[in-house]
Amino acid sequence: MTMEREAAGALAVALVGFGTVGQSVARILVGGVEGLRLVRICNRHVARKRVAWVPERVHWTESVDDVLTGDVDVVVELIGGTDPALEWMRRALEAGKSVVTANKQAIAHHGTELFSLARRHGGQLGFEASVAGGVPVIRGIQEGLAADEVVRIQGVLNGTCNFILSEMASSPVAFETVLADAQARGYAEADPSADLDGLDAQAKIAILSAVGFGRRVNPSAIVCRSIRGLESADFEAARTLGCAVRQVSTAERVEHGTGVRAAVGPVLVSLQSRLAQVEGSENVVLVDGARGGQIGFVGLGAGGDPTAVAVVADLLAIARGDGHAATDRFPIDGAPQAVQPMGARPYYLRVSGSTDAAVQLAASGVSTARSLDGANGCVRLVTAALTAAEFEAATGTLAAGPARIAAALPLIDAA
Ligand SMILES: NC(=O)c1ccc[n+]([C@@H]2O[C@H](COP(=O)([O-])OP(=O)(O)OC[C@H]3O[C@@H](n4cnc5c(N)ncnc54)[C@H](OP(=O)(O)O)[C@@H]3O)[C@@H](O)[C@H]2O)c1
After folding, report:
1. What average pLDDT does range 20-39 have in this prediction?
2. What are the pLDDT digits (tens) for 314-330?
3. Residue 377 to residue 379: CA distance in whole angstroms
4. Between these two residues, 85 and 186, which has the higher pLDDT value?
5. Beta strands, E only, 238-377
6. 352 vs 116, 356, 374, CA distance in Å?
7. How far is residue 30's CA from residue 27's CA, in Å, rounded to a whole number?
8. What are phi and psi of 36, to 5 degrees?
């Protein structure tokens, strides 16, 4: 970094968490960014983490107290999880510092408290990296679409699921085999539950709902369905139907009132849809505005460098004094708004243990829109459009006998 860039007035940045994203952020800052200077790195077991490429003037510490001192302007929280990340962010904000974080769970579940603290103590809170990694979707919605009225947000927001679903579509391989491969390659965590079962995407779509509609919801109220249990027969059925399987997160603003319709889980989308065209760890977010139509954001949703780009963009916004706008726009007043199920949709079903699933469904008032060839003793069909309640009733009817719903994927409408 040149002496020029070290000039007084540059924002003093303390990095908390020197892992995948933290190291990428440090590399960008050490390379020299006008208006920013890295002054502290905080991580447990510093002796193990210390690297030679960080200049000697940067102070390494194991104590978060060292980053709450007067000579630090912004704390970048990149340790992840809730404990101690949440408490450390609280303390930084209470000390009047600004905070930048990539922590989706903290923003989705504790955003009200954190944004209130930031406003009360005059700090700014940047969270661009908490959704879709390097894709600037928060700023894109908050600033680029500020004059529109966002009515729907759909996204492929979890790279781990997208990698697994893409692999299973390309060859008839078992779910467990692809998952083990994803873990070996570092694409999936040792405990992949948050990704596979939708909790990661649930937090992200809750954040997008707050940003897009100004409607804050309790993330836990958004129903998630897991991608576990999908088999090659489902991917073959998807191809027959001209569709791809994707884990899609959807949020729609309820018109004429309050609330949000939202869901996360595997669905069938047309192969022509932009949602079907993201591969591997790419993310896509489609935002429908009442005035401007649909805007798409696509790019790398994970990885140290892409995510670090979003973190440093937040730091630059704070350095320019632009971070207050994002901090002030996040809705914090009142109770979270109600989450409702999505509207009526057809469902692809794979049913085992019964050869007359269609007849049983018809008896309970659910017509079959299309029958597919069976696979391994299973019945595969597409129902007529069902509301969530009708779907529950229909599956309840089947489950009363020997039938088991082995897979149930809604077919969704997406551009
Ligand atoms: N990686 C991505 O692609 C990505 C994308 C978008 C968002 N994010 C988010 O970015 C954040 C960081 O993710 P990451 O992938 O960089 O995680 P990571 O590689 O696991 O790094 C976390 C770092 O924090 C340190 N740490 C953890 N707990 C600590 C504690 N109690 N005290 C001190 N240091 C502690 C870890 O130290 P040790 O080395 O000792 O474990 C590690 O260096 C998370 O919120 C994540 O959800 C990540």
Report:
1. 97
2. 999 999 988 788 888 89
3. 7
4. 85
5. 243-253, 260-270, 282-289, 293-300, 339-340, 347-352, 368-375
6. 51, 10, 10
7. 5
8. -130, 140
CA 63/CA 43 separation, integer angstroms: 8
> CA distances (Å), 286 to each of 157, 250, 269, 276, in order?
11, 10, 14, 12
Task: Locate 154 and state its tokens.
Answer: 């759909």
102: CA distance to ligand 1 center in Å?
9
Ligand 1 pocket test target in 18, 21, 110 with most atoms within 8 Å of CB? 21
Residue 1 confidence class, pLDDT cut points 50, 70, 90: very low
Q: What is the DSSP secondary-structure string of 177-200?
A: HHHHHHHHTTSS-SS-HHHHTSHH
Query: Is the beta carbon of 220 within 6 A of some atom in ligand 1?
Result: no
Q: pTM above 0.90?
A: yes
Residues annotated catalytic, as ranges? 204
- Give distance in angstroms: CA of 209 to centre of ligand 1: 25
* Ligand 1 pocket residue status of 92, Cβ below 6 Å: no
Instruction: Give me the half-sphere count of Cα atoms (radius 13 Å) on the Cβ side of residue 254.
Output: 16
pLDDT value for 415: 72
Report the residue among 16, 18, 20 best suited for mutation to probe ligand 1: largest number of ligand atoms under 8 A from its CB: 20
- What does the pLDDT average to over 140-156? 97
Tokens of 342: 């999505």
- Which of 138, 124, 114, 141 minimizes the C-alpha distance to 332? 114
Q: Average pLDDT of 114-143?
A: 96
State the distance from the centre of ligand 1 to the C-alpha of 215, rounded, in angstroms.
29
Residue nearest to atom 39 of ligand 1 (CA): 19
pLDDT value for 8: 62
Q: Quick check: 355 pLDDT over 90? A: no
Which domains occur in the chain, in start order?
11-130 (3.40.50.720), 137-300 (3.30.360.10), 347-412 (3.30.70)
Q: Categorize the per-residue pLDDT at 414 as very low, low, confident or very high, splitting at 50, 70 and 90.
A: confident
Any ligand 1 atom below 6 A from CB of 102? yes
Residue written as tokens 């922590």?
103
> 371 CA distance to ligand 1 centroid (A)?
47
- The token duo for 86 is 């949440």
Structure tokens at 90: 């609280």
